[in-house]
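PROTEIN DATA CARD
Card holder: mannan endo-1,4-beta-mannosidase
Chain length: 397
Origin: Agrocybe chaxingu
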Amino acid sequence: MRSFLALIFCALLVLAEAQLSTVVPKGFVTQRNGEFRLNGKPFNFVGANSYWIPLLTKKEDVHATFREMQGAGVKVWNSTEWVLNDGRQGLQRLDYVIETAGQYGIKVILAFTNNWVGYGGSELYVNWIAGAGSTHDVFFSDPRIIASYQRYVKVIVNRYKNSPNIFAWELMNEARCLGDLPAGPNCVAGTNLLSHWYKQQSDYVRSLDSRHMITTGGEGHFYWPDKNVGFWHNGVFISDYNFNGQAGEDFDADLQLENIDFGTYHIYPQYWYTLLDTPSSTNFTIKDWGLSWIQDHANSAKKANKPVILEEFGVSGLQNKTEIYPEWVGLALKTRHAIMPWQFGMTGLKERNRVFKYADYIIDGASPNDGFAIYKNQTAVWNIFANAAKVQNSRSR
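Structure generated from the sequence above:
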């Protein structure tokens, strides 16, 4: 989905105590034996995604949004916007957001770039450095692009590496072989290009910062060539993109990397399986598919002995949300996930009407709604996550 290209704001998470070479200061989150920890105690959370917060121009709106998140028990926030400059509309704005998040007990996952074109992303590197006609996946292999990415990463990590308000560094949001540009032959199932890139970049970030956690930011695609997962449609067997390695990820292998501290994955079956999500389907529901996807990732995380975050998920339609989310959240809680629905919505903003970009806009003081937004006045849906936050908070005491 169009997701956090630059920052992901997280609240009170963890860092890998077993893998970090230095003593973790108070307020830094760690992971150990498959769970997040903060100041020596388990840290379990429900969070939220809100890509639009860094785009707000009124400081009181930033405070009001974090205040409402805090009141709902939110401990993790994901966002999306990045402008690399030192001015008031660049890193100074990011400085303010990170500082304000900390005032409300909310920590920040910072994503270094985005797979998709929305609000920038990896293809800016491809277009500027590799040039026209290049495929998306050269981002992961071109030495010039990798060097440029690392120069950028170094600026960000050095700026915030001493801040306990940072939850973790995220290498890239939703990395895939393809993006808005097509994939090339060097990034197909079995090439392990993304896994090599994850290792290279996580090792580099660890060399800069030994105290914060690192994650891939991936959607959680598996590579199960021996299982031949797929489905039949009109008499034709279709290999399942989420399991056949075509995306370039290998969730099981990527989670085993030494400097990847926890796993992330997303759930949007309503949009991934349009061929199956039809009234005539007799053996497919988006609810059941999502439950299976959650369990698959829980199993992988248990095998790796690392935590996992259901970092984005969404369905459209209020009835779908009220029927499906309790089931997904219930299984995620049972399997000790951290939970971050897409996306947190806010009303009553002082900024009344403004177009951001890509048809995203504030209207009458309401944050952008892409069909997934959850507002406080949608009580039935809101309470699903507020109640889950209470469960998570009770586990952290």
